[in-house]
Amino acid sequence: MKSDLARLTAKKIELDKHRPLAPAIVAKLREYFVVAWTYHSNAIEGSTITLAETRAILLDGITVNGKPLREHLEVINHSHAIDFVEALAQKDEPLTEMAIRQIHALVLRTIDDENAGSYRRGNVYITGSNFVPPDAVAVPSLMYDFGHWLASDEANRLHPVEFAALAHFRLVDIHPFVDGNGRSGRLLMNLMLMRAGYPPAIVRAEDRVAYYDALEKAHAGDTRDFVGLMAQAVERSLDVYVDAAPRNGAA
């Protein structure tokens, strides 16, 4: 794992040599990542909207016929949540419980306004998983502790990619919301990555089984596979950015 993280550091240093990237390159990269991030994050949770349909909704404002309204709203909401996360990434202020709840509120806006941004008030069970989330009465104190961990010296001494991946996992492990925990966890992870100067990581829909297997191991106490899978996602994004950077001074 240390060698993987060292490789990511080296690739980020290489990317930093090309910064600032030209505005046109930044705009195209953002368009690519917003569409891909939204598609894959929703697909992991079972959405049937395709990558092409996600692009049409976000870039062309098209409503996709024959797809549930909820899935259409999930695309729009996730895009708005990315806008919010990007704005937070530019601010030098501590990450708080309130910020996490605001991210979640955007994820579920108009889909489930009663629960959007609110901690669950009942116990939940995850289909196909041996993991049983904490009792609902414990969620507020667990989230309070999580907020303190995010600001702790111990956590901030971690490699930025490991820190972001573990934050993603810890939020999902608490499972503070009735729905939208995975999307919120991935948004939080990418907020932390962007603050550290890394591009957002995209957990691919085709890696869904590996993602959930790694989560199961992490819930059982071994986070190595989960952090490793997130590191792979970060590396793919770094490669996209480095490949998009101009060579030999070319624009």
Describe this structure in words.
The protein is mostly helical and 251 residues long. The protein has one domain (2-244): Fido-like domain (Fic-like fold, Orthogonal Bundle), CATH 1.10.3290.10. Helices cover 64% and strands 0% of the residues. The chain contains eleven helices and no strands. The protein has helices at residues 2-18, 23-44, 51-60, 69-89, 97-108, 139-150, 153-156, 160-174, 181-195, 208-219, 224-244. Helix 4 runs antiparallel to helix 5, helix 4 (69-89) packs parallel to helix 9 and helix 10 (208-219) crosses helix 11. The longest helix is centred in the N-terminal third of the chain and has 22 residues, at 23-44. The chain is globular, with a radius of gyration of 18 Å. The mean pLDDT is 95.
Short description:
Helices cover 64% and strands 0% of the residues.
Which descriptors apply to this entry?
251 residues, single chain, Fic-like fold, 11 helices, mainly alpha
Question: What is the terminal-to-terminal distance?
Answer: 35 Å
Order of helices and strands: HHHHHHHHHHH
Strand content: under 5%
Total DSSP helices: 11
CATH architecture: Orthogonal Bundle
Shape: globular
Layout: helices, strands, pairs:
Elements (H helix, E strand, L loop, with lengths): L1 H17 L4 H22 L6 H10 L8 H21 L7 H12 L30 H12 L2 H4 L3 H15 L6 H15 L12 H12 L4 H21 L7
Helix pairs in contact: 1-11, 2-3, 2-4, 4-5, 4-9, 5-9, 6-8, 8-9, 8-11, 10-11
